[in-house]
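Exercise 7b. Backbone tokens:
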């Protein structure tokens, strides 16, 4: 916070944690209050974007999360996740250095637990809604708009994946929203 030294901020956090008995929850609340605040649009976007991250089976890059959001049925949900995640580097991996993008996921399992428990997270609770429906619509939207015959431009369809020496590069080049492991 502006006007406070790091030591003063630390002391305030420790005081909050000792009063409530839940130091981690106090820390998460302090971070989210300073970054997201209580503005309704920011809270709604935070909860939606975090629900997207927590609902997918495998972590995705911000580029892929954005591609999926472009296929969400409700236009108010079609925004770049960077407007939320760009400020959450202390809580999420894969959001800080976009020159070498990583997969977006909570840095610690306790953040997931905090967000999915309304008694702990309060206004920052991530749950409910229709995220699985949104993800299904987004997946169908991507398939409808991006899927094509021989998407990787293979010379022969008779080769197995292991016989294509540059398959990963072809996947990255021709399917940019695919997060290869």
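Sequence design result:
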């Amino acid at each position: 916070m502006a006007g406070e030294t790091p030591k003063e901020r630390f002391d305030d956090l420790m005081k909050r944690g000792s009063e409530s008995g839940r130091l981690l929850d106090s820390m998460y609340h302090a971070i989210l209050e300073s970054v997201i605040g209580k503005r309704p649009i920011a809270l709604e976007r935070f909860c939606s974007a975090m629900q997207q991250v927590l609902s997918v089976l495998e972590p995705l890059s911000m580029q892929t999360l954005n591609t999926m959001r472009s296929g969400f049925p409700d236009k108010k949900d079609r925004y770049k996740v960077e407007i939320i995640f760009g400020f959450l580097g202390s809580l999420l991996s894969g959001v800080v250095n976009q020159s070498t993008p990583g997969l977006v996921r909570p840095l610690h399992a306790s953040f997931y637990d905090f967000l999915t428990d309304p008694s702990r997270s309060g206004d920052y609770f991530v749950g409910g809604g229709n995220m699985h429906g949104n993800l299904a619509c987004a997946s169908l939207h991507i398939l409808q708009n991006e899927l094509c015959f021989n998407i990787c431009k293979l010379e022969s369809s008779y080769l197995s994946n292991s016989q294509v020496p540059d398959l990963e590069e072809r996947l990255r080049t021709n399917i940019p929203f695919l997060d290869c492991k």
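Instructor comment: The first helix runs from residue 6 to 20. The mean pLDDT is 87.
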